[in-house]
Amino acid sequence: MIQTIDIQNYLPHRAPMLMVDLILSLDANFVETSFLIKEDNIFVADTVFTEAGLIENTAQTCSSIVGQKYFVGADGTVDENAKVIGFISALKNVKIHLLPKVGDTISTKATLVSKFVGDDYTLCTMSCQSLLDEKMLLECEINLFIQKTISTVK
Question: Rounded distance, CA 112 to CA 123, Å?
């Protein structure tokens, strides 16, 4: 179990598209992240973090489970030159109960349901929840496709 690490070690995302601050807990099948919603976030409208923001936060949280394969070596060192692309291939059973506001810190949890690993790509399904304290914000199942890319820059 890894505790409180910078999400940028596991994702290619950078501001303004980075929707996770810290990984609070991570193993091969589970991840929990936190995210402080700031006023200048691109998914904030009228001081409310939108549905699209919640879904992007969830996708980035889920990606860290699979991303560790591409960004962290067997010895635990981070490969800062690793390049991946990824996208949501499906959202299922999405339920948005409540939208958080600027200044709220949300917690997002994802559990791996299934995974298929190819030579340079991974397909996975995850069960997800986003919370504000004990209040459920979002529940869904998400399918992700993540692929390692070959860099042409030397």
Answer: 11
What are the boundaries of each domain within the chain?
2-148
Report the relative pairing of strands 2-6 and 105-117 from DSSP bridges: unpaired
Distance separating alpha carbons of residues 56 and 68, to the nearest angstrom = 18
Q: Which residues pair with 108 in a beta bridge?
A: 33, 130
Is 2-148 assigned to CATH 3.10.129.10? yes
| pLDDT tens digits, 64-81 | 877 766 656 667 666 666
Chunked mean pLDDT (size 10), the chain, 154 residues? 53 70 89 95 97 94 76 63 76 97 98 91 94 97 85 53
CB 88 within 8 A of CB 18: no
Q: Which of 26, 10, 24, 123 is nearest to 71 (CA)?
A: 10
Strand, helix or coil for residue 60: helix
